[in-house]
Amino acid sequence: MKKNINEAFVVSKRFDKKGNPIAFIDPTKPENNNTFKYKDILKDYGAKWDGENKYWFWYIGKNKEQWNNVYHKFIEPA
User: Fold this and answer.
1) Are residues 57 and 26 in contact, defined by beta-carbon separation less than 8 angstroms?
2) Which of 12, 28, 57, 74 is the most buried (most CB within 10 A)?
């Protein structure tokens, strides 16, 4: 049985080092503390861990339709 995250994390957008657009849980924002304890849920919904920058992220595609698809199928359910 899967559980949803009961906390509201703030998701921000940026580009990774290769220029790919990503949505990420910004660790510098106070409401985004302790995301690692939700690692299993985040991974179940397609999030990747950036060990160098210490945040969870999703590749979101290059257009609005791709972003909406990733958001509604992966980010929002997590």
Assistant:
1) no
2) 57
Is residue 36 very low, low, confident or very high in pLDDT (cuts 50, 70, 90)?
A: confident
Please provide the DSSP assignment of 38-68 as one string: GHHHHHHTT-EEETTTTEEEEE--SSHHHHH
- Give strand pairing partners of 22: 14, 59
Report CA Rg, the chain. Answer: 12
d(CA 63, CA 78) in angstroms, rounded, equals 22
Q: How far apart are CA 64 and CA 61, in angstroms?
A: 8
**Which strands make up the sheet holding 55-59, listed edge to edge?**
11-15, 21-25, 55-59, 48-50
